Amino acid sequence: MTLRMTPEQYEAYERKRVTQIGRVTPAQKKEMAATWNGNVQPAKFNRAPAGKTAAASQSGFAATPLVLPWPPTGNTAVRHANGAHYIRQEVIDYRNQVALLCLPFKCHFGPYVLHLTLSPPDKRKRDADNAIKTVLDAIKGKLIEDDSMTFMRALHVTIQGQSGHVEVSIEPAKAAA
After folding, report:
1. How far apart are CA 64 and CA 169, in angstroms?
2. Distance separating the N- and C-terminal Cα atoms of the chain
């Protein structure tokens, strides 16, 4: 038997999981707030007014981007040792920091179009797919239901500037005609 949650139930579950099960402790929240680059502040999504249905709140996501810090590389995110694999602490810290930034926002359920603007911190050569993978893994279950092709109808990536952040905006996918 498969149990399904409403978007509101999932949001409450995710908030409890992130804050109470030790993924992000109050001390870590304080530390992350102190180390956050003050020049790059997270923006807010334009959302539907409170009390609207889930379908109405999905259309409330607009083009105002959420600004995230530059992600660690995806090349070495997962390591293997003694027959097991694990995620590096740097990646776990990044996911926790993104989880904190996403707490005020509702998770988008259903098909969507994702816009990413990558602004690397310096002029080094980088593979965009490594940054994209780390960002998608970090926002999965927080801003978007899933990063699979079942839900992501289009991915638009723009690379500009050198300010060391990633702008994420989500819009619902238009229904097929």
Report:
1. 6
2. 33
Domain CATH code at residue 11: 3.30.1330.70
Q: Which strands sit side by side in the sheet containing 165-172, from one edge to the other?
A: 66-69, 165-172, 112-119, 152-159
Separation of alpha carbons 146 and 64, rounded Å = 20
Does residue 2 form part of some domain? no
Which range marks the domain in which residue 64 is found? 7-172
Report yes or no on whether pTM surpasses 0.90: no
- Residue 176 CB contacts under 8 Å (≥ 6 apart), including other chains: none
């619902």: which residue's tokens?
A: 172
Both tokens assigned to 124: 């080094």
- pLDDT score, position 168: 93
List of residues 6+ apart from 15 with CB closer than 8 A: 103
Q: Taken in order 29, 71, 155, 87, is the CA torsion positive or negative?
A: negative
**What's the domain count of the chain?**
1
Q: Is residue 115 part of a domain?
A: yes
The answer to whether residue 1 sits within a structural domain is: no
Task: Quick: pLDDT tens for 128-176.
Answer: 999 999 999 999 989 898 888 888 999 999 999 889 999 999 988 886 5
User: What whole-number distance in Å separates Cα of residue 77 and Cα of residue 92?
Assistant: 9
